[in-house]
Amino acid sequence: MKATDYLRRLGHFVTDRLWRLGFASRFLLMTVLYSGTALKRFQLTIREIYFTGVLSLIIILVSGLFVGMVLGLQGYDTLQRYGSSEALGILVALSLVRELGPVVAALLFASRAGSAITAEIGLMKATEQLSAMEMMAVNPIARVVAPRFWAGVISMPLLAALFSAMGVFGGYLVGVQLIGVDEGSFWSQMQAAVDFRQDVLNGVIKSVVFGALVSWIAVFEGYDAEPTAEGVSGATTRTVVTSSLAILAADFVLTAFMFRGV
Amino acid sequence: MNRAAIDLWVGIFVALGLGALLFLALKVGNLAATDVGETYALTARFDNIGGLKVRAPVKSAGVVVGRVGEIRFDPENYVALVSLQIDKRYQFPRDTFATINTSGLLGEQYVGFEPGGDSEMLKAGDEVKKTQSAMVLEKLISQFMFNKAAEDGKQ
Hints:
The complex is a heterodimer of chains A (about 260) and B (about 160).
Chain A: H1 3-33, H2 36-40, H3 42-52, H4 57-79, H5 88-126, H6 129-135, H7 140-179, H8 183-193, H9 196-224, H10 229-258
Chain B: H1 3-28, H2 31-34, E1 39-46, E2 57-60, E3 63-74, E4 79-87, E5 97-102, E6 109-114, E7 127-128, E8 130-132, H3 137-154
Parallel strand pairs in B: 1-7, 2-6, 5-8
Antiparallel strand pairs in B: 1-4, 2-3, 3-4, 5-6
């Protein structure tokens, strides 16, 4: 193969990706424009909140608890070398509220709910349910896509908050109940160090952004899936991979803006 | 799954989520404790503020009575100009002594107020005249080493 072939392939790859990104952005714009139905007939969105949010509760709560307990064990192991094991509360709460809560909850959300959304919409397309809706003059973006998108945006911050709260409780269980860090200083040092606006609110903003990202990628991949069994399985994989990478990249950008050490 | 059950579960989910947020705000964070209420501004000049940061607490007798508002450099006198937001409920005498202290050996720095005996009180916009700079650990250590070396030299 000649060198120009490689260059042409590279060019094709880049333009292909750019075209897809543009298509996905237009799709997001359409989703937001046609959200009137999803917000007016809120019952549609509530149904989707049940499937994306409520059914993700167990995995989020259990993971949060275990992450918090591990943080408690590992944090104590390091902190007690410097004689500051009372700072365990700060360590557990800050790492959960700022980073682990939003990010890990979003990663779990992408694999638990995002993949399901993609598979559902992809299969609707494969079995021509979306075309049938268009035949009946029902806009599938307004009826199918927008409720799922908004359900993700609403569920994600709640799930992240539950993850963080559960994690702090797990850290408390291990740190105070199991190891025996003083309970009073555990909570009071935590409260002195965690700022509502700086830490808690920024965590909520992060989780809203991640929720929008994951839902966007999930509904887009489902809608764009090739209408075959293989196509749907490929789209589901792409949803999990792309949204995980997008979450981590967005987390870096958001953290750089939010916590610059001032 | 019928509609009523779905509504119920979503309701439980949203209530739990908001409850978790409230827990994070009140029990984990310091939303309940921070509000210093209405404040008035005082200024103070320090030769060296060490690691004092904006929003650091102002404490008197160990109780938080305000926050550090703004830290600037005064280019005429080459000192640090610190504005302090003090809670309106508390008044301090004119000869109050402001120091920069460290909580613990390596902890965060805060401004400490030691009230004097003057009968007139500081008003909004006044300057705290008597100040003491931050203790810079490196300086102390180098002074100590220097003295030690000088002693050893004499012997």
